[in-house]
Amino acid sequence: KLQFLYFIVLQLTKMTRTVNIGCHSAMWGDSSLSAPQLLRSGEIKYLVGDYLAEVTMAIMAKAFQKSKGKLGFATDFVGLVVRNIKAIKGQGVKVVVNAGGVNPRGCRDALQEALKKVGVSMKIGIVEGDDQRDRAPEFAKIKEMYSGENFPSKIMSCNAYLGAFPIANALAQGCDIVITGRVVDSALVLGPLIHEYGWKNTEYNKLASGTLAGHLVECGAQGTGGLFTDYQKLEWTNVGYPIIKVFESGDFLLTKPKNTDGYVAPASATEQMLYEIGDPGAYHVPDVACDFTQVTITQQDPNTVFVQNCLGQPPTSTYKVCATYPGGYSMCPVLVIQGRDAVQKAHKTADALFTRWDMMLKLAKLPPLEDRRVELIGGGGTRYNQPEIARETREIVLRMSFRHLDMKAINLIRREISCAGVSMSQGTIGLQGGLAAPSAVVRCFSFLIDKNSCTPRVNIDNVSTPFPVSCDGGFPGSASLKVNVQNTAGGEQAVMTTMTLDNLAHGRSGDKGDIANIGIIARKPEYLGFLRRVLTPARVRAHFAANCKGRVERFDLPGTDSMNFLLYNTLGGGGTSSLHSDPLAKTYASQLLAMEISAPLSWRLPEYAKL
User: Which residue has the higher pLDDT, 490 or 157?
Assistant: First the structure.
């Protein structure tokens, strides 16, 4: 009887116990209010934070070199811990971050020194082994995985995206704080879950669920209403940062601290799930290949959703690596042109300036500009394919951007921008207060390496121990190939009218290199079939004809009544190498939601709810 009772108690514990994790940072420079807010909630056992992006790694690599090895990490993380150490230590909260950048050891040493000054001792572990710079000669013949370009002759950083099991190992050795270099963002959450529940590397559904939990919170308040389509539903002043409560099964709750702003609902959580993903049936991280297509998200309580049915498959046998390298220099002068025919004046101004600059470079016997771009912000014509808006506009922001490999060329033509204010269109003013400053361009080069060639290491007390992970791979192929969604009937007999897409859908967009992704979620399940008929890949490509130079793919996620579109060769190279004003595709969902469609009159949102 006692054994039976113990078994029942054990099962009930498994069903009700959760591991609670709060994420305080979506990037290096996120709000200083987030960590104290999460700690004040008293609900979290782990505080995690994502600090890294490709350009961040390049900035840190430059700082590491300039400081002779002293910098190269997220320096403000040290202050964050010190300011909140009383709550962290008092509540027994463990901290897991990728703030180590290109110098995890330097980050650890700086934190230990700062904690020593306030009389606090914490066991700090670091995960290293991601830095691949020393292997650059070995990669000389590798091609970029998207563009096919050759490996750069000079690199600034070169880091493999490691997985979650080394983090779990550091926690198992009693670390209070774990600092990593480059890992996949979701590993900051999956690592603690592997440690707490003892998940094995073959429990793919659990690993996939833990990865999804990490994906939903890795961008901080984006998971709790930030960037939500229906902005009028929430306040932002005291936006709540995300907390996930994960069960042993892998299913989890997504919520935020009480008495905070923000909004957590199936639509807002689904938006974040679709953010910056590719094929939802093959979301690859080092530990598992995730299948998001059947995920369901339901409202559990106000500002709390229950997420389940995330499936997993064996991962690939490779790590993704991102190298950054110098790509010349760019400038982005901006002018404001007002009055009648503002759009025409802006076009004429840009044509005159670029013609003048080309002439000057030729006379100086310098190569021509490597790339150029003109954007008329506020006119609507370039982005929305609605020239009638542009014709009515009486105020335009003229954004001209260009790139050259030689700083001499940039400096030669830089001063010629100001002359537009005295020798070209009436109504022209500067926006930047002085001459625009040139910027060094950092390009990204992505490729794959065999996992067997890259061994993570766990470093505790300056003892760095190799931590081999499974390199078997075995990924069988995308689960999207098995998804079958029909264009079900809907709206055929209704009275039709013209409306914008946002009446029927929510959206969220992001980037993957030079690929823009746009997630579209039906406001009601019965709208999905209609939306699939209306939003064909061809129509989406036509809507973004000004930028999309490649193909468009569509993937279905029937569990959340949603779709994900991938627009290839769209972002001008993407990231820091792009001249686009939106190189990360942040605005693309808003642009698509502004598309006019013919739909049943009864489906239109009430006027007060329209965006």
Answer: 157
